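Sanity check. The docking grid for adenosine monophosphate depends on where the pocket ends up, so I'm generating a full predicted complex first rather than guessing from homology. Inputs follow.
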Amino acid sequence: MSELNLILLGPPGAGKGTQAARLIDDFGLAYIATGDMLRENVKQGTPLGVEAKRFMDAGDLVPDDVIISMIEAELQGEESKDGFILDGFPRTTAQADALAAELQRLGRALSAVLLIEASDDEVVRRISGRRVSLSSGRVYHVDFDPPEVEGVCDVDGSDLIQRDDDKPETVRRRLEVYHAQTAPLIDYYERQGLLRRFDGAGSPTEVHDHIRAALATLRLEETL
Ligand code: AMP
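Predicted complex below; grid placement will be based on this.
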């Protein structure tokens, strides 16, 4: 059976990271999340991190050339050779074109683009309650998925914080950016017959079940 190469598309806060974690467990795919990679660079204080931070804090996109070279390096690595999930990339048509060119060069292809849909109101509600541990990477929600002890990570006891770009005014900006620059990718991938839509309003388990069913159908079609 051929490798599974997936893109997770959808607004911030739709549950892409949650679904990615489950799909990695299911299929053992490499997880490539540009947001996580950028945050790691910011944390380490690399030149890339210093450049990216001002865009991220403002809720704007980091320039395409920076992101594209980061992804190219990742796709050439050993880890992703049996399949991958891209989370938070591509976010612009230029990034999608660059991805297509790189995959073609590597003789690989996308299996599907999973769109997780969520309304703006739902996004704001979810993101404003989001808290993360910088050391363990575990993400919580103050109402829907609280830690055992308020403000403390269950995994490693570290303090939980709100990401700078999860503050309400930045979330509104991120949504504007999503609608203007990323949403056109819905049509882009629909035209290629790759798009599968999922209602992100369901519980994580419901959304996961729907995605698994869609992927099972996809793999079945592949063998016909
Ligand atoms: P995320 O964790 O995916 O929501 O990403 C956090 C922030 O990192 C975004 O608001 C952008 O500033 C930046 N970022 C992540 N991925 C990309 C991308 N593919 N293109 C441009 N900027 C990105």
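Relevant for the grid: Residues 12, 34-35, 38, 55-56, 59-62, 67, 88-89, 91, 95, 165, 174 surround adenosine monophosphate (CB under 6 Å).
Also worth noting: The chain has nine helices and eight strands.
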